[in-house]
Each structure stands twice: as C-alpha cells, then as structure tokens.
Design a protein that fits this description.
Low-confidence stretches: 55-68, 566-571
Distance between the termini: 88 Å
Shape: globular
Radius of gyration: 28 Å
C-alpha cells in the first residue's frame, strides 16, 4: 500500500482536531510513525479542550459526566473518576517534562494556550493526593514545593498527614520553565512561538518576563489585576504585536486604579480589542480615562461589580465609540444617576448614542438603566441585536418599555424586573412593545412576567414566530397556551416557570405538532399546580414521546407551597 503524502496526513489530523476527536487522534499517534508527529501536534494544540481536564465542579457531577453506566456502584464510579484524574495529571506532566527536553516530542511547543488555572485545579483536587508522589517523581522534583504546615487527610480510616502543596509557587516554576523553553526553541529554530494565550494566578514579577518571551501572545486571563503595570505593558508593546484581549478576575490590592491606567496607556495605541473585569471594584476614574487610548480598537468592554463612583464616571469613556459589546454590572442597584448626578446621565446617554456599532448591551443592577436606555433605544443610529436589563422595576418604566419597540433589530431580549405593584397598563405596554420585535429569537421574561396570564403569552407567540428560546413566568396558565406554542416552529427551548394547570393529553397533543425544525427541543414545566399532577407513568410517556418526535427532553416539577407553620419558630 502506498503511503499518503505528509501534507494529507497533517490535513487529516487537523480535521480530527477541529472535531475535537481526541480518541482518534491518540489512536493515530500510536499506530504509525508517519502519523505520530501530526497527530500529537494537533492533539496538544487543542489540549485545553480535552475531556480529561476535569472541571472540579463536584464529585457527583463528575461521576455522572464520566460514567457511561448509570447502574455502576459508587466504587466503580469513583474508580472511573480516578482514571480520568490520572490521565489529566499525565497530560500536564508530559507538557512540563517536555519543557526540560526530557520527552521524545516537545509537547509544550505545540500548545497554544497555557492555562495554569487548570493546573491549579489539578493540584488542589483531592484525588490528586494519591498521584502526587508519582507526579513529582524523578526530574519533576524540582517543581515540588510545599507549605510548612501539613494537612490531615480527610480520608476515612487514614491517620497520617500530608504536606500541602504550595500551588502558587509551583505554578510560577512551571510557567517559568515552559515560557523559557518555548522562547529559546523559537530563537534557535528561527521560528515563532505557538503560545497565544496564558491564564492563571501570575505574579507581577513573573508576568513581564513571561510575556516578553511569547511573541504571538494574543490574550491573557489573570486572577489578580494587580499584576498589571506599566512594565508589563511595555513588554507587551515591544514583543507582542498581536495582543488585544485582557481579562482579570479582581484585585487583591484595594487601589490599583493608577496602575491599571498606566498599563492601558503603556500599550500601543488602538491595540486593545477586548477588556473584561469580572470584579471591577479596582476600576476607577483613571482606568476609564486610559481606555480612550484604545478608542478605535476597543470592541468589547465588560465591567462587573463596578463601584458606584466609577459608574458615575462612565461618561469618561466618551471617545470609545467603536464598542460592539458593552456589559455594565452595578454593585447593588442603588446607583441612580438621575437622582445623584443630574448632569452625568445626559453625558452617558450622549456617549452611548455615538456608539453606532453597538450590538450587544447588558445593564445589571443599575437603577437609572431604564432611563438611560429610554433615550438610547430611541436613537435611529443605534441598532441593537442583544439587550439584557436586570434589576429594575416594571412600575414606573413604561417609557422605557415603549422605547424598546424602536429596536426592531433585536434578536435576543432579556428583561429581569421586579413586577411587584404593576398594573394592567404596565403589562399591556410591555406586551405591545415586545410584539413589535419580530426578529426575536431569544426572549427571557422570567420574574418580569410573574403577573402574565395565558393571553399575554399567546399575544407574543402569535407574532414572534422566529423564537428559538422562550422563558417566562406567570399565573393560571392553562392548556390554551399550547395552540400558541404550536406556531413556534423554530423553538428549541421552552422554559415555563409560570403556575400552570396543564393536562397530560394536551401536552402530548402539542408534542405531535412539533416539526423537524424543533429538533432537540427542551420543554420545562417548572411550577405545575399541585391539584393538576402528572403521574410517573404520564411523565415517562411524555418524555418518550418528545424523544421520539424531535429527540427532545421534558422536565417537570410539581409546585408545592411551603407550609408557613413549618418555617416559623416555635414559641
């Protein structure tokens, strides 16, 4: 048999990697000398998406995720998870040892993402304790660091103690080894480094050194924003021409506003495309001003947990008009710019009104959000595709709800408001406006719709025929709903949190109306009235019916009112 050309083998492995078919890639790697290099190259290039990298979200979840047999015993499931953890550790060990030149192939030269968060999860995983000695054996001992105080094992029948790993120091040593090796190899081979992304709890001392070695660096995800400084920016500006994406979780230092400003100002002008602060309490006036240094390039900005004083200064971003995605999360919903800063709200409105490329907008816990959005939505030059507003009141915001109808380009809308005290006209205005948004594919009105009845949902379903994802609440929703749902031939998710009184026969009848375009539909009835229960047999019939019809899923929960006496303290 004639061998395939090397180019064809690389293309085959590239396609397998694109499909994340790690099993076949591994089989290729061990099956032929001609396939081993292209298979390993592609496998390690996307190694961060491998299913063996545990999420660490809890033992029960991992058992279910990693077990293919629901009839397995606890011990069998535990053994399966241990096997996964062992493979996870072996993957990291092969990457680390390759940075010392002690493996047959230089795996760390293949990887595009160095995710030290994942290594930290492995080292902190309870199941890793049994693998620790093997993992840090031989040439790996140079990476072993422990804290002074030993920890007692929380294993039944075990009396011994073990030394707790000093994870931050280990991560620093690993990162230093890998970044140094890939940089040296690239220089010697006159090639470019494959690494494009680094993430983890990286110290301010290591960060400028590491980024200086990664010429193709495009993005960073840091645990501590305090690691950022003018020195890091200078290293990126001089060595990383493609860098454009920054995320950090928060800051362990109380005031780094000036340091952040120095970092953003120190980068090349108009080079940053995306900035996300998952805890933005460190962001202040100086940081906001410095982001204007990237006024033409900044497309995505997400500031979660922004302090009240910083929210009042959002107008300082006035030159950042190239934004396509903007997410602002307030700390508590108590910031009302109209009440506290009468001249600030118009400036923010004016700034947003100049963001003509803005497509996705999310405001959470911002009391003045509806007032700002009322003016923004009325602008003819603003064409939103996604809008999410969380943490406001239905009462007193009819103007905002009316203004929504002008954003006819919307494809996704989520309104999570407090409906308490809403009158009939409040609900009618909201329904009337949403009904004009005929391009909607995703509509989430949970909590906002607590006072909706069947008729309101039917009004929406009669005109929003492109819906793929619909979530709503309400009260006294009856079987009349199903005739409206039958018109939604693109629906893939229907989440009903309303108080319902559906019947077995009408649910089955609705399922029979589903089309091929509804394939994969998840139907969730989450608050069925106790006086209208479904038997276990009826539930199983519905589940089988929707599975047979569209390969769908049915979730059902019977509402049970909490006994107030059981929650009261005894006299």
């Amino acid at each position: 048999m004639q061998d395939l050309p090397a180019d064809c083998l690389y293309l085959i492995c590239e396609e397998l990697a694109a499909k994340r078919d790690f099993g076949t890639l591994f089989a290729c790697a061990v099956s032929s000398k001609s396939l081993v290099k292209p298979a390993l190259l592609r496998m390690y290039r996307v190694h961060d998406e491998s299913p063996i990298r545990s999420s660490g979200e809890g033992n029960e979840t991992d058992f279910e995720k990693n077990s293919t047999n629901n009839d397995q015993t606890f011990e069998e499931k535990l053994a399966a998870v241990k096997k996964i953890t062992s493979k996870w550790a072996l993957q990291w060990k092969s990457i680390i040892r390759s940075s010392m030149g002690h493996t047959l192939y230089p795996y760390c030269l293949y990887i595009r993402s160095l995710d030290l968060r994942n290594l930290a999860e492995l080292l902190d995983d309870p199941l890793f304790r049994g693998l620790s000695q093997i993992f840090f054996a031989g040439d790996m001992t140079q990476f072993l660091r422990t804290v002074d105080t030993p920890m007692k094992q929380k294993i039944r029948g075990a009396k011994a103690s073990y030394e707790k790993l000093d994870v931050p120091v280990i991560l620093d040593l690993v990162g230093e080894s890998i970044t140094s090796f890939v940089s040296t190899a690239a220089t010697q081979n006159k090639a470019t480094v494959a690494l494009e992304d680094i993430s983890g709890n990286i110290s301010g001392l290591a960060l400028p050194r590491w980024v200086g070695r990664i010429s193709r660096l495009k993005g960073m995800t840091l645990w501590d924003g305090a690691a950022l400084s003018e020195g890091v920016a200078t290293s990126i500006a001089n060595n990383c021409p493609e860098f454009d994406d920054l995320t950090f979780y928060g800051s362990l230092k109380p005031d780094i506003d000036q340091d952040l400003a120095s970092f953003f100002s120190g980068l090349k002008k108009d080079s940053l495309r995306s900035f996300t602060a998952l805890s933005a309490s460190a962001v202040g006036r100086e940081t906001l001003l410095s982001l204007n240094h990237h006024k033409s390039s900044l497309k995505r900005l997400k500031l979660d947990g922004l302090r009240s004083k910083a929210i009042e200064k959002l107008y300082l971003l006035q030159e950042c008009v190239a934004l396509e995605t903007l997410e602002i999360h307030g700390p508590d919903g108590l910031v009302n710019l109209e009440a506290t800063e009468n001249d600030v709200s118009p400036e923010i409105i004016a700034w947003l009104g100049r963001c003509e490329r803005l497509r996705d907008l999310l405001l959470r816990n911002l009391a003045s959000g509806p007032a700002i959005l009322t003016q923004v939505c009325l602008r003819n030059n603003i064409r939103l595709q996604t809008l999410q507003v969380v943490g406001y009141s239905v009462v007193g915001n009819q103007d905002f709800h009316r203004a929504l109808s002008h954003q006819t380009s919307l494809e996704s809308l989520a309104l999570k408001a407090d409906p308490e005290g809403a009158f009939r006209d409040d609900i009618d205005v909201l329904i009337s406006s949403i009904s004009k948004l005929t391009k909607l594919r995703d509509l989430n009105l949970v909590s906002t719709s607590d006072y909706f009845r069947t008729s309101e949902i039917l009004n929406l379903s009669s005109v929003l025929t492109n819906l793929e994802d619909l979530s709503f609440g309400g009260y006294d929703v009856t079987d009349d709903l199903w005739r409206g749902m039958s018109n939604l031939h693109q629906l893939r998710k229907l989440d009903i949190s309303a108080m319902t009184s559906f019947s077995f026969d009408r649910i089955l009848a609705y399922i029979e109306t589903l089309k091929d375009s509804n394939r994969g539909l998840t139907l969730s009835v989450m608050s069925q009235k106790a006086e209208n229960p479904l038997s276990d047999y009826e539930e199983s019939v519905i589940k089988q019916s929707i599975r047979n019809k569209v390969d769908g899923k049915f979730d059902f929960t019977l509402f049970r009112e909490v006994d107030s006496e059981s929650e009261s303290f005894s006299d």
